Amino acid sequence: MRWNPILRKGIIIDSRSSRLPVIIFFFNLILSAAGIFNLAHLTMDARETATIRYESIIQLYSLISTMEFMMLLVITPALTAPAICSEREGQMLDLLQTTSLGNGRIVAGKLESAVIEMMALLVSALPVQSLVFIFGGATALDLLLPLIAFFVAILFIGGMGIFSSAICRRTVAANVVSYILTVFMTGGTWLIAHFARWISARAADGEAVGTAGGWLYGLLFNPAVTYMCVIDRQAGDMTDELTSLIGYVPKNPITEHWIPVSLLLQLIAAACFIAGAVRIIAPGSGYFTGKD
């Protein structure tokens, strides 16, 4: 098996740099502080009442996982957005394209390097997430399901970051575009669905529950909604989570299998972003003309 030279270079740089250890340290420091504080509050409450509220354990698990997901949304664009345009700024992209790597391996190597960094963060946080095992009520499968959602979200957001890096000449512009896309896919799609629900409720004069209509299915591409459905599925009913987000949810094969359908569509969208990046950086694409 031949390693992608771009990936190998990224691993070597990360192993020699203090950036990744520092990110891992502060990433876990924030999670640990939140987890230990919540656990201490749970213990003090148990001493005072002589009872253990197991719903608090679910809240602890949800808190740690949610903070982890939020930091993932912030860190992933920052790792992937400079991937291509930084090589272009250093006038190294044209040189890379003269090698036998090919545009696909260049883009794949950049994305794989960022994904490995993010997975290192997620694996390093497993001991913090394991705090829920102190009182029981959670299994290893409960930790695995959010990790799958995290991994797909990393690929999806990372794909948008790579695409942003391919279409922008400068790193700053790529970062801005990447974060705009991330905010739109996580917050913008929800606002559109919520607005459609509000319009529907207004049209019914408050006599019926508002519905987002077709805009509901735009949330299939929202990694935050997918994550919340995963957490809510473990704690209760996923449909309740969707209803609380956008109102009436029709019963059909898509809504009944929301999580797998959403994960699949996000993987397809990530593949489209990656393919778009490969096509854009191709020397004959004509996307960039003139001098940088």
TrEMBL record:
Q: Which UniProt keywords apply?
A: Membrane, Transmembrane, Transmembrane helix
Membrane-crossing residue ranges in chain numbering: 20-40, 60-85, 115-137, 143-164, 176-196, 258-282
Membrane: present as a keyword of the record?
yes
Keyword check for Transmembrane helix, yes or no: yes
Coiled coil segments of this chain:
none
Name recorded for this polypeptide: ABC-2 family transporter protein
